[in-house]
Amino acid sequence: MARTRHRSLDCSPGCAVEATLQLIDGKWKGVILYHLLAEAPEPEGALRFNAFRRRMPNVTQRMLTNQLRELESDGLVHRTVYAEVPPRVEYRLTERGRSLEPVIRALKAWGDAHAAMAPEVAA
Amino acid sequence: MARTRHRSLDCSPGCAVEATLQLIDGKWKGVILYHLLAEAPEPEGALRFNAFRRRMPNVTQRMLTNQLRELESDGLVHRTVYAEVPPRVEYRLTERGRSLEPVIRALKAWGDAHAAMAPEVAA
DNA sequence: CATGACGGTATCCTTTTCGACACTATGGGC
DNA sequence: GCCCATAGTGTCGAAAAGGATACCGTCATG
C-alpha cells in the first residue's frame, strides 16, 4: 500500500523541503514522531503499540501499523520485538529520527502560535 | 477537488504538529513556499504563475493552480490580479505565510543535511 | 494568417490514501 | 468455557489526490 512515494527527486532547489516533507506526511506520522519525541516516558523514549493507540484514539490499527512501518522503513523509528508470551513491541526513534526534532518542534511551535487551522479563526 | 482537509482537529497534544502539516502537505506546496521565501526577486518577493512553472517544470498547470489556490484559501499566500492586457498575476506571501519561514527552513535544513531521501542512500 | 505568451479551466482517468470491519494466535483471569 | 489483552493482518470500498490532455480569450510578433 505504501512506498510509492520517493519517486523522482526531480525538483530543483526546494527539493530538500519536499524530500523532508515526504518523510513526515501521511496523516499520523507527525503525531507519532511528536509523541516519541515529547511524551515517551523513559529517557530513550520507547512507546508500545497500544500506547500509541491510547494517545491517538482515532487511528485504526491498520493505519497505525502502516505508518509505523513506513517510519521504520524510512529509518526514522526502530522496532524492537520481544519474543514474550504477551507479545511486546517497542518503538523508539533512531538517530536519524531524533534529528528531526527541530523540524517537529518548528511544526509544533507554529501550530501552537497560529492556534487554529483556518486563517479566519486565527485572525 | 480540495478542501476536505481540516476536518476534525481531534488529536490530543501532537495536534498542532498535524495542523501545521496539513497546511503544507500536498506534493508542491512546500516547494512553492520555499520559492516564495527564498527565490523571489524583489524584497517583498512576488512570483508570477509562469515563474513558478519555470522553477518547477514537472508541475502541471492544473496542479499549480490548485496548490496556489489552496495556499491562498489557507491564508498563506496572496494573489494579486492586474487587469492588464497580457494578464498578470502575482503571488506573494502573507504575514501568516511568512511566519512559516522557520518551518520551511527547518525542513530545508534537514533535507540538506540528510541529503538523500532513502536512509540506505544517506548511510 | 499562424504562433506564442499569459493565466488559467474543464474533463477524464489512475493512483494513493484512508477508514471500517473482521480475523489471527497466545496465554491469563474469572 | 469465555473474555480480556497483546500486536498485529486481510479484505473491501470510498474518497481524495494527482496526472494527462485539451481548451479558452487576448494581444503581440513573425
UniProtKB/TrEMBL annotation, chains A, B:
Keywords of the record: DNA-binding, Transcription, Transcription regulation
Superkingdom assignment: Bacteria
Keyword NAD in record: no
InterPro entries documented for this protein: HTH_HxlR, WH-like_DNA-bd_sf, WH_DNA-bd_sf
Gene3D superfamilies: Winged helix-like DNA-binding domain superfamily/Winged helix DNA-binding domain (1.10.10.10)
Residue span, HTH hxlR-type domain: 15-119
GO molecular function, one term: DNA binding
Protein name per UniProt: HTH hxlR-type domain-containing protein
Source organism (scientific name): Methylobacterium tarhaniae
